[in-house]
UniProtKB/TrEMBL annotation:
GO molecular function: heme binding; iron ion binding; monooxygenase activity; oxidoreductase activity, acting on paired donors, with incorporation or reduction of molecular oxygen
Family to which the UniProt record says this protein belongs: Belongs to the cytochrome P450 family.
UniProt binding sites for heme: C405
A Pfam entry, by short name: p450
UniProt keyword terms in alphabetical order: Heme, Iron, Metal-binding, Monooxygenase, Oxidoreductase
Name listed for the protein in its UniProt record: Cytochrome P450
Cofactor requirement: heme
């Protein structure tokens, strides 16, 4: 029986300031602000972010309807000058026929067949990281996971490690992402494009490094694998190859600039998401001996001492549930915005054209209506016979609908295989105490997550 439609009845939210609206409260702590909208006002709340008239959604049914209709009923909310400069005119920022063309060209690069092709790279990268670790050593977990995530994304995207250039690229991307996050929470979000603040100048310098290297790699690949020693790596077939080989229905390839935009977007969306997710998962596992013991049992039973492969993914049930629960409590991405077009409707109610519609993975994933004891780490929530039924779109770390993340399968397999590979070799005992979060483009630890490495032996 289909679920009964939940009517959309928007109510006014907190009064804002002239011109700024609710920007000060949102900028100070966006997660707390959106949680307040949900708890104190309801499932559909009107508010304002600067000059933007906004509607915040908290009910999974409204969110499912919103995400399903984004392509036709909503336009892009251009959230900042910095974001536009980093992602260019990639599929993430395209609409209409241009979006359909680019999605058709880019999606094959991250389909299951390609995930299978790159799984060995993921596992090998994790094995190399574990080989550097020593019993009793101390590591900054997030830093380690960032290095690992960078290595995986550079090898799968560009085909090799790029040597010293990888470090320069990684540092430049870190600057770009930091400045993008800073802009998202302040008045810089509304400054004209022509204004060059210190933050924007730092971003432009970082992008100059990124663009020069990515265009160099594209040119080298177009001129043949031997042109600069970079072509293809690992026998070819990396994501850059796939982007350069892609053709639309009329036989047209992506231009060099379009390849740059897609490659940089895949890179930006991929490595920090993976590293952040793994950091929070290690933190949660360290605080849950029962979950970690069940993970040990599964790894010993399924893998029997050998490294995991992509064929093990479906058999690593508990590992996948750990990843799913980690993404629920700490979803790396925390908000999805769009702008209503004429004719947009939610829950049977018209949404005025020009309204910025928002939904948040953080607030829905932590809603006690859908997840009892929402902050508790309970991977058993996702057991096949779990008593509590999770509504559709109460869990959506990768978005949903036609514009959902095209790399969802890639990311889920990557996190699970990296976790399984490292957890075979080590327990990470995170220093006791709460780790606060900070909000940028992603939800990341606000302090170093320091762990003691403890070598694990098969039972």
């Amino acid at each position: 029986m289909p679920a009964q439609t939940v009517p959309l009845r928007p109510v006014p939210g907190p009064r804002g300031l002239p011109w700024a609206g609710n920007l000060p409260a949102f900028g100070k702590d966006p997660l707390a602000f959106m949680t307040r909208l949900r708890d104190e006002y309801g499932d559909a709340v009107t508010w304002s972010l600067g000059p933007w008239r906004s509607l915040f959604l908290s009910h999974p049914q409204h969110i499912a309807e919103f995400l399903a209709s984004r392509e036709h009923s909503y336009g892009l909310l251009e959230v900042g000058w910095s974001f536009q400069r980093i992602t260019g005119k990639s599929v993430m920022r395209s609409t209409g026929a241009d979006w359909r063309r680019k999605r058709g060209l880019v999606q094959p690069a991250v389909r299951p067949r390609q995930v299978r092709h790159h799984a060995r790279t993921m596992v090998d990268s994790a094995l190399a990281a574990a080989d550097r670790w020593q019993e009793g050593g101390h590591v900054d977990v997030h830093r380690e996971m960032v290095v690992l995530g960078q290595r995986v994304v550079i090898r799968t995207l560009f085909g090799n490690d790029l040597g010293d250039r990888a470090r320069a690229l990684g540092a430049a991307m870190a600057v770009a992402e930091r400045e993008m996050a800073r802009e998202l929470r302040g008045v810089g979000l509304f400054l004209p494009d022509r204004v060059r603040t210190p933050s924007r100048r730092r971003l432009l310098r970082a992008l100059a490094v990124i663009d020069a290297e990515v265009h160099r790699l594209i040119s080298a690949r177009q001129n043949g694998p031997a042109a600069d020693g970079d072509g293809g790596g690992e026998g070819g077939g990396d994501l850059l190859d796939r982007l350069l080989e892609a053709r639309d229905e009329e036989g047209r390839p992506l231009t060099a600039q379009e390849v740059r935009d897609e490659a940089v977007t895949l890179w930006a969306a991929g490595h920090e998401t993976t590293s952040t997710a793994l950091t929070w998962i290690w933190y949660l596992l360290s605080r849950s001996p029962q979950a970690r013991a069940r993970l040990d049992d599964e790894l010993d039973r399924v893998l029997d001492g050998r490294p995991p492969t992509v064929d093990d993914y479906d058999r690593l049930t508990w590992t996948r549930q750990i990843v799913k629960e980690g993404l629920r409590i700490y979803p790396p991405s925390w908000v999805i915005p769009a702008v209503a077009r004429e004719g947009a409707v939610l829950g049977g109610t018209a949404v005025p054209a020009g309204t910025a519609v928002w939904c948040s993975q953080w607030t829905v994933h932590r809603d006690p209506r859908w997840f009892p004891a929402p902050t508790a780490f309970r991977p058993e929530r996702w057991d096949a016979d779990a008593p509590d039924v999770v509504p559709d779109h109460a869990w959506f770390p990768f978005g949903g609908g036609p514009r959902g993340c095209i790399g969802t399968r890639f990311a889920q397999v990557e996190v699970a295989l990296l976790l399984a590979t490292l957890a075979q070799r080590f327990h990470l005992d995170v220093t006791p105490g709460e780790v606060p979060h900070r909000v940028g483009i992603l939800i990341q630890p606000a302090v170093p997550v320091i762990a003691t490495l403890r070598a694990r032996r098969r039972r």
